[in-house]
């Protein structure tokens, strides 16, 4: 099982834009309204912190590899090699480069009309990290950090996220 996790602040930011772009989900007039719902567990798919917390119990199983989006963005070649090794795949350098090229955000966004139709424009917005800094107030940042510590701060997944997001 390959378990991809992401900075909760970027998850919230992406979900805010996703919600406002998809008519079947509740849309939000303001970021503040969305943030309140996100932090009070009123999201359609539940609470991201509870999701991470529940999955943490599987983090040490040998058939589970956890990798962060931030880690993949920082070094896709190394990420692909780690994933291939975990899956027991032997890839040539050419194959690694092909996977890196085809799995880049830019490549997937460019091909999204073919792979996802009109839904592609909603799924593939920016693909970056730290976009949360464009929305979060200082108070919201502190509230998110507090919730992170409460739910997953001392867990294996929390430690991995904290390292990838805050320590690099």
How many beta strands in the DSSP annotation? 2
Proportion of residues in β-strands: under 5%
CATH class: Alpha Beta
Largest sheet: 2 strands, parallel
Fraction of helical residues = 55-70%
Overall radius of gyration: 17 Å
Structural class: mainly alpha
Strand order, biggest sheet?
1-2
Distance between the termini: 26 Å
How many domains make up the 3D coordinates? 1
Discrete helix count: 11
Q: How much is the average pLDDT?
A: 89
Domain Sulfotransferase: 1-155
EC number: 2.8.2.-
Keywords: Transferase
GO molecular function: sulfotransferase activity
Summarize it.
With 168 residues, the protein is mainly α. It contains eleven helices and two strands; from the N terminus they run E-H-H-H-E-H-H-H-H-H-H-H-H.
Structure description:
- The protein is mainly alpha-helical.
- The chain has one domain: Rossmann fold (3-Layer(aba) Sandwich).
- It has helices spanning 8-21, 31-39, 48-55, 69-74, 76-87, 93-102, 105-110, 112-116, 120-123, 138-152, 156-166; strands at residues 2-5, 65-68.
- The chain starts with a strand and ends with a helix.
- InterPro entries: P-loop_NTPase, Sulfotransferase_dom.
- This is Sulfotransferase.
- It is an enzyme of class 2 (transferase).
């Amino acid at each position: 099982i390959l378990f991809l996790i992401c900075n909760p602040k970027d998850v919230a930011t992406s979900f805010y834009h996703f919600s406002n772009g998809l008519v079947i989900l509740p849309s939000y007039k303001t970021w503040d309204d969305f943030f309140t719902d996100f932090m009070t567990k009123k999201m359609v798919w539940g609470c991201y912190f509870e999701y991470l917390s529940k999955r943490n119990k599987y983090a040490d199983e040998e058939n589970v590899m956890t990798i962060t989006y931030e880690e993949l963005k920082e070094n896709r070649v190394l990420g692909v090699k780690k994933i291939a090794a975990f899956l027991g795949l032997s890839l040539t350098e050419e194959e690694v480069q092909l996977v890196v090229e085809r799995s880049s955000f830019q490549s997937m966004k460019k091909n999204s009309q073919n792979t996802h139709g009109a839904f592609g424009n909603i799924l593939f917005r920016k693909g970056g990290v730290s976009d949360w800094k464009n929305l979060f107030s200082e108070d919201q940042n502190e509230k998110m950090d507090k919730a992170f510590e409460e739910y997953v701060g001392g867990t294996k997944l929390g430690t991995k996220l904290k390292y990838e997001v805050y320590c690099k």
